[in-house]
Each structure stands twice: as structure tokens, then as C-alpha cells.
Specification:
Blueprint (H helix, E strand, L loop, with lengths): L27 H17 L7 H14 L7 H4 L1 E5 L6 E4 L3 E5 H6 L3 H16 L2 H6 L7 E2 L2 H6 L7 H10 L5 E2 L5 H18 L5 H20 L15 H12 L9 H8 L3 E2 L7 E3 L2 E4 L4 E4 L5 E4 L4 E5 L2 E9 L4 H10 L14 E6 L2 E12 L2 E13 L2 E10 L7 H6 L1 E2 L2 H5 L4 E7 L6 H5 L8 H8 L13 E6 L1
Parallel strand pairs: 1-3
Antiparallel strand pairs: 2-3, 4-5, 6-18, 7-8, 8-9, 9-17, 10-11, 11-12, 12-16, 13-14, 14-15, 15-16, 18-19
Length: 480
């Protein structure tokens, strides 16, 4: 798994561990389990990308699945390109395999795409999710607003736990983790599938390396510690997986990469946030469809999910979301607090609810002090009556007495005009051909960012600072 997997139904499955000499089929029980979860996953991850780009990913995925030894693999596997800005890929029982457009955009050839999808097919072939289900204590999707809020536990060093499990991750993550041996087995199976299909098997190591570099860059830009990238997050040593994958493939291995064909097929993918889900640009969040915006405090970074935005910094954590408003704001705030429990599963309630007005929008807020194992914390719900039966709110958690750190963010919430909404444009993956005289520096200067243009360009293209470009070579840049 590059990140996680939904648990399989008990019983059934496949008899093969991925060896082509022992064909098997995916069980009806697993197919039913996957079919049930599939629509929920599409909703959680922003839906499926459609069109030629998705068709290409599906073709590569089904092609690599044919190498797994599973009977009827081409028809039994469902391969989906997800409209998500999170670097992730995963599989669920029944032959459902997913890769996000963000992770796809990070790749640089078809062999890398086949490696990622082959790794996930390997998890399906070896029935890893079913085996992990027997030992897992929490096998569920870390879903959108409802399940995220109900999972907030304010004890057992909860301040850090809250940040790690919810706010720093965004909503588009899966909780079920594979063992190290299962991850390595999926790597090995993916490499074997690459070899059988004629791809360069070293692609498994190079895509893992790109992920590690991208994660390090994101950590640097956020000013946070370097965490393991989503697709390789199960274990804390991705460098060893890169080395192991290269050793398994053979340092001198050869095979198809189809770089130009891959780049042609993914040209034009949305990169980063889709305006339909809101756009993060530095410390600003703008949602052109909902016609609203707000600004995170200085020193904080945001992670955009399909139904919630997480705000993370050294002095606190926050989440922004919305819901239907059928009564008063007081009742709405009470409902949000009712979703929260402390370490003893006791309902958290605010001392009182205060009225406010923010940029002409009726608002209200409540603060509850909770005793956590590492000291008292303040949980704040700040809500806005947006009209039309719709409300939006922030949930924040800070050390006791520090709730005011989010006051500038609360006060920044505002409506935006139709003209402002219309000016919001997505970033796009733009494949260009290197011209005579072009350099790494000159092309990096065209990246649609105000910071770290060169660093972003190098990681995106799998290049080093001393790399040279050749006229006629295809390269990726990000543009509006």
C-alpha cells in the first residue's frame, strides 16, 4: 500500500500470492466488499478524474494487473484516477486500485506509474488487507467531518495525537497500516510484475525516491519535521525501501520506461487544489464555488480535503468545515461540540456561547476547557451564519489560555464577489519541449509559484541541481 487499505470481508479472497503460475480469481465476497466501499472512497477523494488521462491510467493499471496471476485480472480490476491533491495510492478488496492525480503528476515515466499500481495489485493478490484486519484494532476510513470530529480524543497526550491523526494529515488518508514484511512483499511483487510486463524494474526505487524528495520539500516549505510521504507512510525508513527495491530490480536492469508517452498522456492534469474544492495559496484559502475565503495565522500551514481544511501550527490546530443550519447558531455550535468527547468519552460543552459579527456575517463562538493528560487545553468552535440555511465553522484546539492565536483567522472569514470567484484559476501540469538555450533555471522560473521555484521544478522532474537539459526533451512545469 502506498498508504492504507480498507479491511477485507472475512473469508474468501484469492488463493494466489501473485505468482503467475498459480492463477486464481478474486472472491465474490471481496468483490462485494469493494463495490460497497468504492462510492464512499470516490466521495472522500474528490471523485474520479474522467477523460483521456483517466483512460490511460486505467489501461496501464489493468495491464500490470494482468501480470499478477489473478484470473480475469483485466476485467476484475477497477483502476481509478482520483481528483485529489494528496500524494496517495491504495487498494481495497475486490480488485479496486486507486492513484491520485497529484501522485501521478510526480511521476516521470510509465514504468513508475506501473510500479505504483503494481505495488497495489500486489497487496490485493497477497490479500494483505484481510490478514491485517485480524490484528488491527481500528479498521476504518479516516473520513470527512463527522468521523474526524467524533474521533477527537483529548486525553493520552491528545494535543500531539490530535495533530498527528487528524489536522496534520487532512481528511484523505486511510488508517489501516500494513506490516513491514507486507510492504516489502508488495514492493517485490510490483517489481516482478514490472519485469514480466517488460518495464524497467528500477522504476519502483525511483518513484519511491521522488516521493521522499517531495515530502522533504513540503516539510521544508511548511517548516515542519520531515515525515514519511503518504504513499510510503507505513514505515519510518523509506530510504531503505529505495535501496531494497533497487537491489531487487538490479542496478543494471533495463526495460521500457515510455517517458514521452507518459508525459503526453498526463499533460493538462490539475495540479494541487481543484477550485471546486477550494484553493490554498500560501496562507489564504479561497473557495470560488462557496464564495468565501479566510486567512490562516502567520506561521501556520493548511491541508485541503474534500470536506474540510486543516490548519496546523506550533501553537494550535484547527479545522474548517460547514453544515446545514436549520435553527440558531447556538444550536449549531452545540451540535459540533456534541461530536467531541474527552478521554473518558465525556461530552465537551462550552462555558457559554458569545455572539459576534465578522465582516457583516452573523457569528457566534464557544470555548470549552478540557483537562488532557499533558495539561488543560481549550477547544473553540467559531461558527458563521452564511445565509440560505448554510453555516461554516472552525474547530480549534490550543493550550489553555491560547485560543486567541486564531482570532485573526476568525476575523478574516468573508464572502467574496463573483468577480473574485471568477479570478480563481487552478494550477495545471504543463508538459513543454525544451528549446535550444533553455536551462533548468530558466524553465524553473516559469513555475506558477512565488517561492522555491527551482526546488519544486527539480523534484517534479526527478532532476538534480547539476542536471542538464537537451533540446527536444519533454519536461514538466506548473502553470495557471
Amino acid at each position: 500500500m502506498l498508504q492504507g487499505c480498507v479491511p477485507a470481508a472475512s473469508g474468501g479472497g484469492v488463493a494466489s500470492s501473485g505468482d503467475a503460475s498459480t492463477p486464481a480469481t478474486i472472491s465474490q465476497a471481496d468483490k462485494a466488499e469493494g463495490a460497497k466501499a468504492h462510492p464512499q472512497l470516490l466521495q472522500e477523494f474528490g471523485g474520479a478524474v474522467t477523460g483521456s488521462q483517466a483512460a490511460y491510467v486505467e489501461k496501464v493499471g489493468k495491464g500490470i494487473a494482468m501480470q499478477s496471476g489473478l484470473g480475469n485480472a483485466r476485467s476484475d480490476f477497477t483502476v481509478t484516477l482520483l481528483n485529489s491533491s494528496v500524494n496517495n495510492a491504495f487498494a481495497i478488496p475486490g480488485g479496486y486500485v486507486y492513484v491520485t492525480r497529484q501522485l501521478t503528476a510526480l511521476m516521470n515515466n510509465e514504468a513508475q506509474l506501473a510500479a505504483v499500481l503494481g505495488h497495489e495489485v500486489g497487496h490485493v493478490a497477497a490479500r494483505h488487507s484481510a490478514k491485517r484486519q485480524q490484528a488491527a484494532s481500528r479498521n476504518q476510513l479516516l473520513g470527512a467531518l463527522g468521523s474526524i470530529l467524533s474521533g477527537v480524543l483529548l486525553g493520552d497526550s491528545a494535543f500531539g495525537r490530535l495533530g498527528q491523526q487528524v489536522f496534520s494529515q487532512g481528511s484523505q488518508m486511510l488508517t489501516l497500516k500494513y506490516s513491514r514484511s507486507q510492504e516489502l512483499e508488495a514492493d517485490d511483487l510490483g517489481i516482478a510484475y514490472l519485469q514480466r510486463a517488460g518495464y524497467d524494474p528500477r522504476a519502483m526505487s525511483t518513484v519511491l525516491e521522488s516521493l521522499a524528495r517531495q515530502n522533504a520539500l513540503e516539510a521544508q516549505l511548511r517548516g515542519t519535521s520531515n515525515q514519511v510521504p503518504e504513499w510510503a507512510s507505513t514505515h519510518p525508513d523509506p530510504a531503505s525501501r529505495v535501496r531494497d527495491a533497487l537491489a531487487k530490480a538490479g542496478a543494471n536492469a533495463t526495460g521500457i520506461t515510455n517517458r514521452d508517452g507518459f508525459l503526453t498522456n498526463i499533460d493538462g492534469l490539475i495540479y494541487g487544489d481543484d477550485p471546486k474544492q477550494g484553493i490554498i495559496d500560501g496562507s489564504n484559502f479561497t473557495h470560488p464555488v462557496l464564495r468565501l475565503s479566510f486567512q490562516a495565522p502567520d506561521g501556520y500551514y493548511m491541508v485541503n480535503g474534500t470536506q474540510a481544511v486543516s490548519i496546523n501550527g506550533g501553537s494550535g490546530k484547527a479545522q474548517f468545515s460547514g453544515g446545514n443550519l436549520s435553527g440558531s447558531l447556538d444550536a449549531y455550535i452545540d451540535t459540533v461540540f456534541a461530536s467531541l468527547t474527552d478521554s473518558n468519552q465525556t461530552r465537551i460543552t462550552p462555558a457559554n456561547i458569545e455572539k459576534a459579527a465578522v465582516n457583516g456575517i452573523p457569528a457566534a463562538y464557544g470555548v470549552a476547557r478540557v483537562q488532557a493528560s499533558n495539561g488543560p487545553v481549550d477547544v473553540t468552535v467559531f461558527a458563521y451564519d452564511f445565509g440560505g440555511g448554510k453555516a461554516y465553522h472552525f474547530v480549534t484546539i490550543t493550550q489553555a489560555g491560547q485560543a486567541g492565536v486564531f482570532n485573526p483567522m476568525f476575523k478574516s472569514f468573508q464572502r467574496i464577489s463573483a468577480a473574485q470567484a471568477g479570478s480563481v484559476k487552478p494550477r495545471m501540469l504543463d508538459v513543454v519541449t525544451v528549446k535550444p538555450g533553455d536551462t533548468v533555471q530558466s524553465l524553473a522560473g516559469r513555475m506558477a509559484y512565488s517561492d522555491a521555484k527551482l526546488e519544486r521544478f527539480l523534484v517534479l522532474n526527478g532532476l538534480q541541481s547539476n542536471s542538464t537539459l537537451q533540446a527536444g526533451q519533454k519536461i514538466k512545469i506548473i502553470s495557471y
